[in-house]
Amino acid sequence: MCGGRLGKSGGLERSQQLDHAMKSVFVFESVHRVMKAEKLLKGKGIKIDLIPVPREISSDCGVAVELSESSEAEALFILAENKISVAECYTRDLSGRFQKKERFGPEFKGQIKNG
Known about the structure:
CATH topology: Alpha-Beta Plaits
Strand order of the largest sheet: 4-5-3-6-7
């Protein structure tokens, strides 16, 4: 199941809302936290997709949250307010490459680790 977007029915689908923008990818410590984050963020009106954790990030086949980079700071603030910790945060550029953020959150916007 690694490699595409997860649809509500469990099938793979392509999101039209996020396809043409820089994206942020949040990785969590458990699928349970991903599901809590999804419910909370969608409830606050933030557009997200659940995606398989990209192989460039981890060899584990887990689930991550993908959202537009412009929504990252607000999403991190909401998650922190609700004590849902994000294990790792990545930026995905328009060519599909991932860069891990050393520090992330509203106060660290834009600091990316090159490597």
